């Protein structure tokens, strides 16, 4: 619970984030609206919706945070209007469809924390026709990064402080999505708008973002930086761009290269990022402008697991989880007239 408290406190003290949600909610919520807060955490967004005039809020969360949300609603005297559902959103069922979906699962790169599939599923199963969503869309940006601190994240397992037997773990660090807070001078290229995601649309199995980064100064790139602009609704926006003065308190993403990529002024560097919704696989690539060679990376390589778990799907043994076993027992029972 201590980790849960620490994580959610950081959300509650981010005044810029809360003020933007407050303004968006005041413009989107109508009196008497029924609202679902997806992955509600401590329930702050749902409580804000009630304060803005919503008649009923369901807060859904499969973690221990749901107990904090429930007790907070009780203490605030809102327990009759705030219904807590302690379940994963994809498995949660509601007694009725709602007018508004709200969710703050906006990742460091916007789409890397499951919000696209989360809201797509909830829209199909929970939202009334013509219902509203907060947020509405995401714009994703990519840029080249030149940073000793970020290079240090990749090389941390090969320092003299780490026993040599563990230096092989550097490969895992290279294949990891790193949460960072960039200084503006660590952004080595102009940011490129790599894609826009409409959260009211059906979610594809994966999202692919591509950009061509223009190099203005000879030097090196240590990796790709990514962040978002988010349209919350009602004309309100929030961003975690390291170049924005009014950014919210949310990390950006760093996707590293194994070795620094040497570039010259005038080069055009092709990069891409692929985000899988269902398997949480994040992959990225860069084309060396000097050789044309493409370097490919993935967080699949940073997931320590048994050899059997790394087998290709067509060769791996399928096993039922507990839910599947229970369903198998139910379906095997003889039917009676």
Report on this structure.
The chain is an alpha/beta fold and 337 residues long. It has two domains: 2-104, Vaccinia Virus protein VP39 (Rossmann fold, 3-Layer(aba) Sandwich); 138-305, Hnrnp arginine n-methyltransferase1 (Distorted Sandwich). 24% of the residues lie in helices and 32% in strands. It contains eight helices and 15 strands. The chain has helices spanning 2-12, 15-28, 44-51, 65-75, 115-126, 148-155, 170-174, 322-332, and strands at 34-38, 56-60, 82-85, 98-103, 127-134, 137-145, 178-180, 192-198, 206-214, 219-233, 236-239, 252-263, 268-276, 282-287, 294-298. The strands form three sheets. Strands 6, 7, 8, 10, 11 and 12 form a six-stranded antiparallel beta sheet that branches. Strands 3-2-1-4-5 form a five-stranded parallel beta sheet, with helices on both faces. A four-stranded antiparallel beta sheet has the order 9-13-14-15, with no helix packed on it.
The CATH superfamily of the largest domain is identified as Hnrnp arginine n-methyltransferase1
State the helix count: 8
Q: Oligomeric form of this entry?
A: single chain
Give the rounded overall mean pLDDT.
Answer: 92
What is the second-level CATH architecture of the largest domain? Distorted Sandwich
Instruction: Give the H and E element order.
Output: HHEHEHEEHEEHHEEEEEEEEEH
Please tell me the total number of domains.
2
Structural class: alpha/beta
Give the biggest sheet: 6 strands, antiparallel
**Named CATH topology of the largest domain:** Hnrnp arginine n-methyltransferase1
Helix content: 10-25%
CATH class of the largest domain: Mainly Beta
In angstroms, what is the radius of gyration?
Answer: 22 Å
Number of DSSP strands? 15
What percentage of the residues does DSSP assign to strands (E)? 25-35%
GO molecular function: histone methyltransferase activity; protein-arginine omega-N asymmetric methyltransferase activity
Enzyme class: transferase
Organism: Novosphingobium hassiacum
InterPro entries: Arg_MeTrfase (IPR025799), SAM-dependent_MTases_sf (IPR029063)
